[in-house]
Write a structure and sequence with these properties.
The longest helix is centred in the middle third of the chain and has 14 residues, at 26-39. The chain starts with 14 loop residues before the first helix and ends in a 13-residue tail after the last helix. The chain has a domain at 15-65. Helix content is 37%, strand content 0%. It has helices at residues 15-19, 26-39, 56-65.
Length: 78
């Protein structure tokens, strides 16, 4: 079965946005936000392994589903 593509920036996502992802429970989302507040934005996917409840499979699934760690460029309209 193909993976669901999501549009989610891990570094800016709110609690509600995070919990809308099937694999991220409210507890995991809160842990991610708390970690982000304390340590700043994530620069690398492996840093997510430091968040309680996040393991390699979850991190791999998030990355493969289209989640990002950086802002996508906004195109200016001319």
């Amino acid at each position: 079965m193909p993976r669901k593509t999501i549009s989610l920036n891990i570094n800016t996502a709110t609690l509600d946005e995070l919990t809308n992802v099937t694999q991220i429970s409210a507890q995991r989302a809160k842990a991610l936000i708390d970690y982000r507040k304390k340590n700043g934005p994530f620069d690398d996917w492996s840093e997510l392994l430091q968040v309680e409840g996040f393991d390699e499979q979850l991190v791999d699934d998030l990355e493969a589903s289209g989640a990002t760690l950086v802002e996508t460029e906004k195109l200016e309209k001319y």
